[in-house]
Amino acid sequence: MSQVEALLGRVSIVLVRPKYPENIGSAARAAYNMGVGQLVVVGAPPLTMEPALKTATHKAAHLVQGIRYCDSLTAALTGYALVVGTTARRGRQRQPLAGPAQLAELILPTLEVGPVALLFGPEDKGLTNADLTLCGLVLTIQTAAQFSSLNLAQAVAILCYELHQGVVRLTGEGEQGLYRPRAAAQPELAAMLEAADRALQALDQHSGLDQKGIRLRHLRNTLRRCSLSAREAKLLKDVCRQVAQAVAGQSGAV
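Predicted structure:
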């Protein structure tokens, strides 16, 4: 088991008084996709399994079947080293301290030593002020629309994704499964710029203008702002050589 898997396995999604089994199933699917280990349901009777399992899909079915049901929020949160509450509403008693992108950085020190609960309220009203008093950290998901609250499953998915990405980044394990091309080395960039210099010189001779210097300077500034792969540097070098040859009236392909 990797460090990321171990850490995320200590996170629980706690749903307070949820109303729709479909949302619970979708929350389970989001949690499973991001490696979150447990689902807890508070203040609601055991759900009708069929609609929840349908939205969870067969891969997250074990999370739905393993839901821990609690009558009270206090009982549900016993044993967690940290509780993170979510709210869409603002006010004197509701002052969110963070957004989803900051979640991993804020909770990782605690997660390394104990379990953490991510707390979500019911679909229609969200968490109450009393619920939020049990939280050590409160955050909100900012939206552009005036209707600021999100669907319960959407909110769970956003937080689970941000938490996963943050833990991956902070533990240094890297994004597993993503292809990372080799970056262009300095000699490869120098060869590409040399080819660009010749192409710009050929264009100046053809047009009768002297613009190579400023164009080359802009090209160098552009390269400083981006990171070329070795393949991209070679492609640009070959294009520049072909331009120089074409302008000089030579054969196109190198």
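Summary: The first strand starts at residue 11 and ends at 16.
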